[in-house]
Amino acid sequence: MSPTKDFWRRFRRNRGATIGLALVWVVIAIAILAPILYPQSPWRMVQRPFLPPFAVEGFWFGTDTLGRDIGAGLAYGARVSLLIGLVSTLVALLIGIPIGAVAGYFAGRWDDALMRFTEFFQTIPSFALAIVLVAILEPSLGSIVLAIAIVGWPPVARLVRGEFLSLRSREYVQAAVLSGQRPSAIIFRQILPNTLSPVIVLASLMVATAILLESSLSFLGLGDPNVMSWGYMIGAARTVLRQAWWMSVFPGLAILLTVLALNLIGEGLNDALNPRLARKGR
Amino acid sequence: MAVVRVSDLTVALPQGADRPFAVEEVSLSVEPGEVLCVVGESGSGKSVTANAIMGLLPDEVRPQQGRIELGERDLLRLQAAEWQALRGREVAMIFQEPMTALNPLMRIGAQIAEVFEAHGALGRSARRAKALALIEEVGLPDPSKVIGAYPFELSGGQRQRVMIAMALALEPKLLIADEPTTALDVTTQAQILELIRQLQRRHGMAVLFITHDFGVVAEIGDRVVVMRQGRVVEEGSVRTVLSQPRQAYTQHLIAAVPPLSPRPARGLAEEAPLMTVSGLSKTFRSGGGLFSKAREVKAVQALSFQIGRGETLGIVGESGSGKSTAGRCIVRLLDPDSGRIRLQDEDWGAKSGTALRQARKRVQMVFQDPYASLNPRRKVLSILTEGPIANGVPAAQAGARAAELLDLVGLDAAALDRFPHEFSGGQRQRIGIARALVMDPEVLVADEAVSALDVSVQAQVLDLLADIRDRFRLALIFITHDLCVAAQICDRIAVMRHGEIVEAGPTEEVFTRPAHSYTRALLAAVPGWGPESPLTLGRAAAARSGPEASPG
Question: Is the Cβ of A39 closer than 8 Å to some Cβ of chain B?
């Protein structure tokens, strides 16, 4: 059986993961189709304020305090959430993997220095650090991505370091040393590909965490003021929670389902990529 | 009346395995007071058979048909509670790996007493007294101290003795021993085999002994069952099967067992040594802080030898003798603390950094574990060409050379496009040898290069090593724990103990006139080649009836 086919067979055996993957596809489709579904800007006031859901045709999700379409907000918010989730995870991997790799491969003093540096970031509560960073840099998509990546990379570095520490004494790595390959070639071609399975699993969970973090920042008013996001919608609606439940419930559900789906995918990836650790079915 | 009778047992493997059944229509029985050896190569189904008797099969492996009768009961139909009452009391088991078979957090005495506790036998103080008696019976030194010790304080052989004490605690009728000496050094192995034999006689137990080693069979077995790919190939008394095997497979296996006699010396021309090692030492330090002294292990002390082109030097020793550390210092995976390694006129031991990296191709290594020594994510082509390309050879030329060498080690060129997991252990070891050879080395260090292989594959890989040594005039440094294997390939042998060479000389001399007492002890401990052993007798008979009649 080919490795890809095998991977899918194991992934699909986890039913939760399949559902999660379907959900994420739906969110991605909505994000892509947002300009077609809602040609007008989500910031535009299109109906009377406080319109409950299903009251007027075409506004199934109702409108907010200023008469903006909540459906449009959800669709455009999906774009922001996915974008920030993916990009910030990517940036976190770009910082964490090289640091972990160097620390694990060279060990000794390099390891000590880099791990103390990593711990420095780990000792600061991540949400507080993210708030401070965004506040200093002024809220924008770029600064939010950077802030989430900066609080997100230490676990990646720790994980990669651990894998490198155990793999560097493997015989195939020693054989590569003996054949005169440079340390950089050994790190990137011999060891790194063998550490990717757990990193991919971690990354899928990091996307979920990043989406939550972005929503929390937006909720506090630290989101990018130019883009509509789920967290901002909840934050703006919290004062009218008792009069207009739909304004916070729909974006809340969107966050819940997306994060849940990503976590389910992470678990499925874990089963598929680490078959030996997968729970045994009876 | 047999103690246990397995009849027509078939155990299915889960779908997607390399064959449908782990064991197929296996029948065997163990009579009271006998040692039945089940012998076979890896994947022969010998351990599955033992685990089926113990009710220890993994969830996805299920018995499909057959019976396992212990007295009146069919073990395949037991409920969990019945199993608990039976295990330990009627059937007990010793495992292969003494390092992981004991609970690291429990004192030895408590672990033995636990066996009684599990079966509600004896009172608190009686359990302790019985544990003490058992520790004494299995020959552990200073029983009153051992009873309060933790497993990490004991050596591998001592732990295996504790396992045996636990297995004997309730005087079971049947003892199953699954490769109990495979992880042990040869001298320890001899002691454990002797102990099992003694206890078996004293208690009149039946023993089912699983092993891959015909030497061990000759040493301990009364009857033997030979298995291959889940089926019983041959069965009979050890004496007959080992000296006059009837089936071709058994003949082939026994012929592949390396004998404990040196090859006749080859006439090697005297020439200037290629590599000269003098006074090589390596000490490992661990721990140590402000208040504690660092722990020091002198792994290699003042090692000296010379080796010329086309010659094979065997470095033989038990675990912890420093032989592998020596090998890693010679290929410069480790930096020696002191001493010199000269390679022709170069100071190989003093090279470092880029100069070392560029010179590395001259000294290559073949590793022990064929499953860990090839990168699972790279195709064979990359595995074989990465080294030369890093040394500046054009990719096309490196590829052509890789195909050439693959052919030389006996693999098809189609192998280049495949991943390591698609090959068997022996084939992987051939790829490992080809990987060393593509570098055009002058010195090849083989660190336990055949230890992980089945005996028939072992013989082929040894032949291959000897062949490439002669073809490329390599200086081969062959590191092994196995004297029989060393006898097959080495011109000279150095015996190491506690980091030092205790004896060195031409193979024939070391084997026939060992000068050091440790060498004599090592030779005496090798199982199965005593003057009265069926293996020796069978070999002698085969030699008398002429080489063309001898199997293999």
Answer: no
DSSP sequence for B198-261? HHHHHHT-EEEEEES-HHHHHHH-SEEEEEETTEEEEEEEHHHHHHS--SHHHHHHHHHSPPSS
E strand segments, B394-464: 443-447
Cβ–Cβ pairs < 8 A, chains A and B: 72
pLDDT tens digits in sequence order for chain A, 282 residues long: 466 787 888 888 889 999 999 999 999 999 999 999 999 899 998 889 999 998 888 888 999 999 999 999 999 999 999 999 999 999 999 999 999 999 999 988 999 999 999 999 999 999 999 999 999 999 999 999 999 999 999 999 999 999 999 999 899 999 999 999 999 999 999 999 999 889 999 999 999 999 999 999 999 999 998 999 999 999 999 899 999 999 999 999 999 999 999 999 998 888 888 765 554 443
Q: Which of B59, B333, B390 sits opposite A174 (nearest CB)?
A: B333
pTM above 0.90, yes or no: no
CB contact under 8 A, B386 and A176: yes
Q: What is the C-alpha separation between A269 and A267, in angstroms, rounded?
A: 5
* A194 close to B (CB below 8 A): yes
Q: Are the beta carbons of B367 and A280 separated by less than 8 Å?
A: no
Among residues B391, B440, B398, the alpha carbon closest in space to that of B416 is found at B398
For chain B, how many residues are written? 552
| ipTM for the assembly | 0.83
Task: Identify the closest residue of chain A to B334 by CA–CA distance.
Answer: A174
Residues of chain B in contact with residue A181, where contact means CB-CB under 8 angstroms, are 386-387, 390
